[in-house]
Design goal:
13 helices, globular, disordered C terminus, 380 residues
Length: 380
């Protein structure tokens, strides 16, 4: 561990996974003191991810303390491909990244965090993906002392936490009528909700992943969701987060059997629907899964005082039916002045790849229509 100082603050770089594990309590106090933090910044999520996906010798935690109090943190790891990069812990299975900054000390902590990260980035470009608008990382970007670039990243869809009838009124009249009819059919089916306890999480995650695989069978399931390391991470993280009130795993049962399950990750500012599974046979019972899950999640978010229900990443057509607000994540590239050419190379590779993807979408409208139809089937 190396250290430096910034006024009354100390800045350290932690590379020891054992010390990361021991940071749980101060880390979570910092999360509670950082209003922009999403559920993906919790210690449970990040440490569990590291245990399943981390590489020995790659951990890089920039920590800012005032005395013994942790007041700032950036959770990163070093990768070497396609070039030396410092990237967020959480990888591709994480929908939002942010640095953690104690709100009451932001004016001191952000510059200190920037200087600490600048020292850590002497041999690598910092690539911060999936930064939500308004995140603390925006202030870090503004105060970065070296080269920098801002790109767009994934699109997210969000709804305000309103009574379900109010959300339906946001839709066109014909769409609202269909949703009300679907809600009545769901009620008539006799499905019962059960919120899983921490002790029940391992069995419930196995059920969720089995249903998830079943609903996507033959339609291109995300391969990572079927791998043992993902199941281990989701079980470990969800169990800790349910215990801490940072997650909710709900089973929807019919005649005592779980026919759908949904994990929502929770912070003060949002309830995010992370992953769900549903038995395709529900269609024969005229149960609309999207309406079932959203109606329940909105009700719980409203009761808990969470202002936003997020669909998280992706702009699939079924989400647009609800007239959600569109939020576009950001991607921040940061480097020392000496590594500015490497940053520009990385930026050009990323923008070139994005242009190629856009061109493919324009030249293959049939592929777009085919994917849209698959996404529609997902929620019928």
């Amino acid at each position: 561990m190396t250290s430096g100082s910034a006024g009354a603050l100390s800045v350290t770089l932690c590379r020891d996974p054992r010390q990361f594990a021991a940071l749980e309590e101060p880390w979570n106090r910092l999360v509670r003191g950082c209003p922009t933090a999403t559920p993906f910044q919790s210690h449970a999520w990040l440490h569990s991810w590291w245990l399943s996906y981390g590489k020995e010798g790659r951990l890089r935690l920039v920590l800012v303390r005032r005395g013994e109090e942790l007041v700032g943190a950036a959770a990163l790891m070093l990768v070497h491909r396609p070039l030396p990069l410092l990237v967020p812990l959480g990888g591709s299975i994480t929908d939002h990244f942010d640095v953690l900054v104690a709100a009451d000390r932001a004016g001191q902590v952000v510059p200190a965090l920037a200087r600490g990260l600048h020292r850590a980035a002497r041999g690598a470009v910092v690539d911060l993906r999936e930064v939500r608008p308004g995140a603390a990382a925006e202030a870090l970007y503004r105060q970065w002392p070296g080269a920098r670039a801002r790109l767009t990243d994934s699109t997210c869809m969000e709804l305000p936490a309103l009574p379900f009838d109010e959300l339906v009124k946001r839709m066109p009249a014909s769409g609202g009528q269909r949703v009300r009819a679907k809600a009545r059919k769901n009620d008539a089916a006799g499905i019962v909700e059960h919120e899983v306890t921490a002790a029940e999480v391992p069995d419930a995650v196995r059920t969720l992943l089995r249903l998830h695989e079943k609903q996507w069978r033959g339609r291109g399931v995300t391969p990572e969701h079927l791998r043992p390391r993902f199941a281990e991470h989701l079980t470990r993280a969800t169990r800790r987060m349910v215990r801490a009130g940072e997650a909710r795993l709900t089973e929807f049962r019919l005649d005592g059997e779980a026919v759908a399950a949904n994990v929502s990750l929770l912070s003060a500012g949002m309830s995010g629907g992370y992953l769900y599974g549903a038995d395709p046979d529900l269609r024969t019972r005229k149960v609309d899964v999207a309406t079932l899950l959203l109606r329940y999640d909105v009700g719980r978010a409203l009761a808990d005082g969470r202002p936003v229900v997020s669909f998280l990443r992706g702009s699939e057509p079924y989400k647009n039916h609800w007239r959600p607000d569109t939020v576009v994540n950001q991607r921040f590239l940061l480097a020392t002045s000496a590594l500015a050419p490497l940053l520009r190379l990385h930026e050009s590779q990323l923008t070139g790849r994005e242009r190629a993807v856009d061109a493919l979408r324009e030249t293959l409208p049939a592929a777009r229509d085919w994917r849209a139809r698959l996404n529609e089937l997902r929620v019928r």
